[in-house]
Amino acid sequence: MQHTVANPNSPRKTRRHGPDILRTTELGCPNARLEASDNRIKVTIRTAYGFHHANNIIALIMLRCGGLDIHLPQPRT
Q1: Of 17, 44, 47, 50, whose Cβ has the fewest other Cβ atoms within 10 Å?
Q2: Do the beta carbons of residue 45 and residue 56 sit within 8 Å?
Q3: What's the CA gap between 7 and 13, in Å, rounded?
Q4: For the chain, what is the HEC assignment?
Q5: Predicted local distance difference test score (pLDDT) of residue 49
Q6: Are the beta carbons of 34 and 23 closer than 8 angstroms?
Q7: CA dihedral in degrees (70, 30, 43, 20; nearest 10)?
Q8: What's the rounded Cα separation, in Å, for the pair 37 and 35?
């Protein structure tokens, strides 16, 4: 049986991050949704490796995470 020792820094961390924790619970936004958007941004930045300007990366993130539904023109048949 393995015993765990409580982290002696946890009360200090709770005190330091208390306002952030309260803000998160007040907004009602689940942590999974925040983690998913964070992961999507990280993947987009990895994909954009080699871009010369930060504005291009920001534009790509806004396109992927902005919720726009862009319809590309279709060829006429």
Answers
A1: 50
A2: no
A3: 10
A4: CCCCCCCCCHHHHHHHHHHHHHHHHHHCCCHHHHHHHHHHHHHHHHHCCCCCCHHHHHHHHHHHHCCCCCCCCCCCC
A5: 87
A6: no
A7: 120
A8: 6
Burial 30-69 (b: 16+ CB within 10 A, else e): eeeeeeeeeeeeeebeeeeeeeeeeeebeebeeeeeeeee
**C-alpha of 60 from chain center:** 15
What tens digit of pLDDT does each residue of 2-58 get? 555 556 666 777 778 788 777 777 777 677 777 888 899 999 999 888 889 999 999
What's this model's pTM, rounded to 2 decimal places?
0.52
